Amino acid sequence: MLRSYIKIAWRNLWKNKTFSFINILGLALGMACSLLIMIWVQDERHMDRFHKNDSRLYRVMENQHYTGVINTFASTPGILAENIVKDIPEIELASQMLWENTPLFTVGNTFEKEKGRFVQGDFLTMFSFPLKEGNPKTALKRPDGLVISQKLADKYFKGQDPMGKTIRIDNTDDVMVTGILADMPEASSLKFDFLMSYDRWKKANKWAQEWGNNGPRCYVLLAKNASIDKVNAKIKNYIKTKNKDSNVELFLQNYGESYLYSNWDAGKQNGGRIEYVKTFSIVAIFILAIACINFMNLATARSVKRSKEVGVRKVVGAYKNSLIGQFLGESMLITLLSLILSVLLVLLILPVFNTLTEKHLSLDFSNPTFLLLLVSLALLTGLVSGSYPALFMSSLNPVVILKGALKFKASATYFRKGLVVLQFGLSIMLILGTLVVYRQIQYIQTKNLGYNREGLLYMPLEGDLAKNFQAFRQELEREPGIKSVTCAQSDPLEVGSSTQGVRWPGKDTTQLMLFSQNAISYDYVKTMGIKLLEGRDFSPEFSTDTSNYLINEASARKMGYKDPVGKEMTMWGKKGKIIGLMKDFHYNSLHTAIEPLILHLQRGANDTTNYWGSVLVRTQPGQTKQAVASLETSFKKFNPHFPFKYSFTDQEFSNLYKSENTVSKLSSYFAFLAIFISCLGLFGLATFTAEQRTKEIGIRKVLGAGVPNLIGMLSKEFIQLVLLAAFIAFPLGWYFLSGWLEKYAYRIDLEWWYFLVAILSAVLIALFTVSFQSIKAAMMDPVKSLRAE
């Protein structure tokens, strides 16, 4: 029996090559898309979950309470870990970790800046980053200890045993290799090529030894059977026990969750990358559903041709269950062929997909979980797509069929039309989403930031540049192609330092307010291209400017000043005056609103030392290449032991929104795929309709109906279905897209023409798809269509 079913299914596939090809292609595309998204989602959900202490590993978070505002940060006091592990018994181990650092490594004549982290001694015991050589419990205990990757070991000690060898750091200190890292797991969001002693860094940075300053991150390993709720209750006010003026409350977040759940609002978790996981999971379901609907419509279109086969089988004794089994078997055969094709498509697309998403995904056929995923995908697709055609075909009345009086009930017609509406509703939502995401990204990329990012580049102020900055600057400004030079504590795209230590006459001392701050040198406003609304810039002609301040409009509003220039202000106990009011400009991501900002001169502004941060260079329009050449020449003269590296502000600004750009590209690809598969289904329904109305078309032609009239008659119904789909899709699309746009402090409005473009695109595509079959039916010779009469 089974062999007979397989033979019949294969013959039907081979006999109807066109329909079989469309069915297999549609399902293969839908399954390939779903498979790609599923392995991406699986990779995202497994990120940072490989650590053996995953369930006990947490990062310490801060809720900072200000008047009417709660800000949540992962940065903590630099001495938190060493104290909290002693004071809280439920915390077994703790380690501080610094932000990514790029110090200069020098071994002999080889020198290069490398990326890594400063961490405390128990870091490798807490986390599962394996060592090829060295002891994870002791490798970072000594202040001069250094753990490096195999890549760095081969780079600096090729053909040698690196253990115990020394590397010079920033041309100032020597450290000793105490461990070699094994290959970094792909499932780790934390990437580094070296680990160095945090205690060594902390000793050189006095500010990190105070409870009132934040910066490093703190990770803790809870004891077995420790209650997270009890630990959170104990550490909530821990900072206040060390600093009674603190406004900070601590809590723990599982480290494995922090990758996907990284956004916070008013002290509450507010999404993160999990939003992309949810979005693309829904897209995968949408596209697979569209592919299954396409199969149903095409199977229904063929039902007229196979109705007599069903009638004969029922007359000779076939049971309904056996017919259902036969048609489900055919759908499973088509699904199996589609699955094979989809796997081949995924293997072909994966390299491009990995490049786009910056992943290293692969199809692991040796993994039982992956094989189960494939089988589940095939079974689900086969059952969903084949269930309705099987039930529909097996329920046909053999007497009606063999009399040639087969007619379909209104419910069946409405169901098929409903499937088309659902298909195009989902497709229109994807078109609309793609358009809105693209427009938002374009808005971000072209928005006026309040300063000129074109022709602005920056580089680290390090090595001998720090003590020779004034001479370096003066030489640069004489070089062709360079307009102005300055330096600042923070680079142009991120001012990460903030303070509540700001006072002014009339301030309510009971209110806590947070201000961003940036220590700068002369000509910062000029080099950045920031607009001054009132007052003046810092100038070496005014010796008192070392105690004065520039503020932005947001600061003036928070202080309650309508005319702030000349008003007194104190920051960190240093009293001065506001000498200039800057127009608000974006110094952080557009995800956040512009916050109050204060600029003040660096300590080295009037001498030749104590400069730090980044060098900012404004190039002359059209002379960027010449400016970079001049910059490199001067850099090598003043800082010959460091490699010459720089960044363009406009390029780095684009990199800030890499995730959004990826989402935009993927959305456009998925929308195109959804429309393509939907059109295959529409083609099937148009074929079915033409077959059902063959005689009607012949009679109309005999009575004088022209080809345009017939095309319009056949197309009208489908256009109405697409319009109905748009009517349903628009409110749903508006709801979901409004929620997505709310993640941005600066965003586009959902204008009416977005919806118009989406519906016109869907209508034109549908009309083009239907017109082929409509023209074919309208051009048919009425003699042939009426011959049976």
From TrEMBL:
InterPro entries according to UniProt: ABC3_permease_C, MacB_PCD, Macrolide_Exporter_MacB
Membrane topology summary: Multi-pass membrane protein
Principal location: membrane
Sequence ranges assigned to domain ABC3 transporter permease C-terminal in this UniProt record: 282-398, 670-781
PROSITE patterns per record: PROKAR_LIPOPROTEIN
Record carries keyword Cell membrane: yes
Alphabetically ordered keywords of this record: Cell membrane, Membrane, Transmembrane, Transmembrane helix
GO terms under cellular component: plasma membrane
Domain of life according to the entry: Bacteria
Subcellular localization: Cell membrane
Bilayer-crossing regions: 21-41, 280-299, 327-350, 370-393, 414-438, 669-690, 718-737, 752-772
Sample GO molecular function, one term: transmembrane transporter activity
Keyword Iron recorded: no
Residue ranges of every copy of the MacB-like periplasmic core domain listed in the record: 20-237, 501-629
Protein name: ABC transporter permease
